[in-house]
Amino acid sequence: MSDAAAPLALVYACSGCSSAAQLANHLAVRLDRNGEAEMSCIAGVGGGVKPLVRLAQRAQREGRPILAIDGCALGCVKHALAQVGAQPTRYVQLAESGVRKLAHADFDPVQAAALLQHCTEQARELAAEFNRARSPDPA
């Protein structure tokens, strides 16, 4: 991203083995590939990989929005961010939207499409709020 480009929200997602976790990861990847958010690696944050930790901390310090998507109530993404002093600006826990956590199963593509629309709206709102706050007052 160039300095002239308006920053996108950072998105972090669970990527565990359940269907809910894989849906969270799918949503974050789609947001990234669609240009709606910039995905970063929550495993790297949790693993203490310095450049990834610094990115999360810098976003927190500078007020760059962070969208966290967790598949279930365990809240691994939220906890990993907290370990490095960052917290999500918006938090989406898929279980609260009726997503069931299933082992050895894929997520429902119809449910994924609806949730992608919701997460896209969240990412757009976050970026717009952040960029409005950074813009000089025209008055």
Care to describe what's here?
- The chain is an alpha/beta fold and 139 residues long.
- It has 5 helices and 4 strands.
- The chain has helices at 19-33, 42-46, 50-62, 76-83, 109-134, and strands spanning 9-13, 37-39, 66-70, 90-93.
- It has a 4-stranded parallel beta sheet with strand order 2-1-3-4, sandwiched between helices.
- Strand 3, helix 4 and strand 4 (90-93) form a beta-alpha-beta unit.
- Helix 1 crosses helix 5 (109-134).
- The chain is globular and about 50 Å long.
- It starts with 8 loop residues before the first strand and ends in a 5-residue tail after the last helix.
- The mean pLDDT is 94.
First-residue to last-residue Cα separation: 29 Å
Strand content: 5-15%
- Given helix and strand content, the structural type is alpha/beta
Proportion of helical residues: 40-55%
Shape: globular
User: Order of SSEs, N→C?
Assistant: EHEHHEHEH
Strand order of the largest sheet: 2-1-3-4
Low-confidence stretches: none
Taking all residues together, what is the mean pLDDT? 94
Rg, Cα atoms, Å: 15 Å
For the secondary structure, the number of strands is 4
**Number of helices, where a helix is a run of at least 4 consecutive DSSP H or I residues:** 5
Largest sheet: 4 strands, parallel
